[in-house]
Amino acid sequence: MVAGDVSRPAIARQSILLRKRDALSGDDLSDDDLSGDDLSGAACPSSLNNSSTPWEYGLGRLNGPYHHGAAREFSHREHDWPCGLSAAAVCHIVGNSHCASRIAGRAKPGTTIIVQPTDAQNSAETAPAKKQAEEKLPFLLCTGFGVGSLGIATMLNVPTVFFPVLMTTVLGQSAALAGALLTISKLYDILADIAIGVASDRTKSRMGRRRPYLAAGAIIGAASLVMVFIPPAITGWALTAYMAVALIIYSTGYSLFAVPYVAMAGEMTDGYHERTRLLSFRTFFIAIGQLLAAAGMAALVDWGGGGAQGYALLGAASGTIVFTTMMLSFIGTRNARKVEWVEAKGPRPPRMEQVKTIIGNTPFMQLMGAKTFLYLAISIISTTKLLFLLNVLKVGYEGLVHLTMSQNIVAMLIVPFWTWAGRKFGKTRSYQAAILILSSLYASYYFTSEGITVLELWIRGAVNGIAASGVTLMGISMLPDVMEFDRKRTGARREGVFSSIYAFMEKVAFAIGPGLMGVLFAVAGFVPSTGGQIVEQSASAVHALYAGIAIIPALLTLTSFMIMTRYRLNEQALADMPEYTAQA
After folding, report:
1. Of 56, 74, 417, 521, most Cβ neighbours within 10 A?
2. 505 domain residue, yes or no
């Protein structure tokens, strides 16, 4: 046990094992069970002048309850030090060793004096942080932050939903090639995420360490969508190479914006529930982004004839949306709290030790495991959905419009409910409930067939919206919590690293999903076409589509739920954690 390792929660729990300390140095002199010591009648100073240090004290008998309840704070200028106690006096001092020595000099031998330097003394940023945690972020700041997720949702969903269809129904390429190209770009993205996360952690600029990347991501991301969906008139290996390069540029733009953007949420506020409120704006704009990316883009493609012209409209429109919304977020977060890079206190541990501290962050690993299975399910169903609607339900692009509109309208409207549920029932339980709803919905697609009505599509979309809103909000609002958990364990601020790992797991899932389904469709004999034509598929290909829309996603989301049943980090657990103190 090191100096300063006695915390307020220890006093609140009425610990009976204390350490006698030298009040000047804070050195640990001995371990001693003081329950039998006679500390009665301890003398206390009547006042302490020439100091503005706040003090904490706890009064009571060791092995017994406190006479005056939990520890409380007071200023020496307003209160005299309590004296004449018939029970033991435990003076829990928040101050420097000079002030502690003055008290020690006036106390009788045997009085236990515990010196605890806290953030109020040692950290210039603690008081502002606590104040920040109690304040609501301005509405315009939350809106400026949230609007960026509209661009992220557009970048994530447009290629995932429409690129396989572009390749197989317009450019005459196989589903396996389309899946392989998406997989390669996502694997590259994994390396980009980590590099960008570490770089943004260490960046120093007048705009803060995150915002320069937002601007770069907006420009590169918008340009990449134009490249992907308005390709030159080439075929064969030239087309394959072109698409590979365009998708790598797309992945770079996505990572440049998304990784620092997610990291910002952990820096803008320290409030446990204020994080959920901030990220509810993100969830709201994600719903709008998904609505535009799926329903809006599907309507554009359909209006353009379903061929190359329709996808050219899609590329121009999606690029414009991405650039506009991401730049608005860059501008809208200019007044957000900026947190500079902080190394862990004490000697810097070896790189492998740093990796071990991340792996040892159990709540983070559990959250990432659950998110990976969840993202894998979403990537598979996103890759399959449009092909399923076109080839099995035979509702065309109009069916995707109905499904997506109902899903995202409900998702936007339900955000306040999930914000309330997270506060009322806890983030973990709310997250589990949303996952179960999503899993049940995915399983129900196994029982759908040609002839489905528009009303059924709207009902399914609405249920999906309820679940997706909860999954999105609760999942992302728990990420800053595990970042705080890490900071309290290690003393380091490495939000960018955790954000990059979060994005890394997302990319792994979205790399595996399209590649897996591309192989499955090819093995099942899915027949590609050109010019937007829809051809009759074999029974085995239809079975593969059912597996991709229902069976596999339902099992994956159920696995995600099971992982989250082991998650234990909550508001009280974070509040009870002491701040990190470097070992001497």
Report:
1. 521
2. yes
**H-type alpha helices, 37-170:** 97-106, 119-122, 126-134, 139-146, 148-169
Whether 175 and 38 share a structural domain: no
Last residue of a domain, one of 67, 94, 122: 122
Question: Which of 122, 150, 173 delimits the end of a domain?
Answer: 122
Q: Are residues 162 and 110 in the same domain?
A: no
pLDDT, tens digit, 9 for 90 and up, residues 347-389: 566 667 777 878 888 999 999 999 999 999 998 998 899 889 9
Structure tokens that stand for 556 in this block: 């994956």
Say what the pTM is: 0.62
User: Is residue 94 domain-shared with residue 152, that is, in the same domain?
Assistant: no
C-alpha–C-alpha distance, residues 341 and 438, integer Å: 38
* pLDDT per position as a tens digit, 97-116: 333 343 344 444 444 433 33
DSSP code, position 347: S
Residue 55 lies in domain: 8-122
Coil, helix or strand at residue 103: helix
Nearest to 76 by CA among 100, 96, 48: 48
Cα(13)–Cα(123) distance, integer angstroms: 26
The pLDDT tens digits for 331-351 are: 999 988 877 655 555 556 666
Is the pLDDT at 193 greater than 80, yes or no? yes
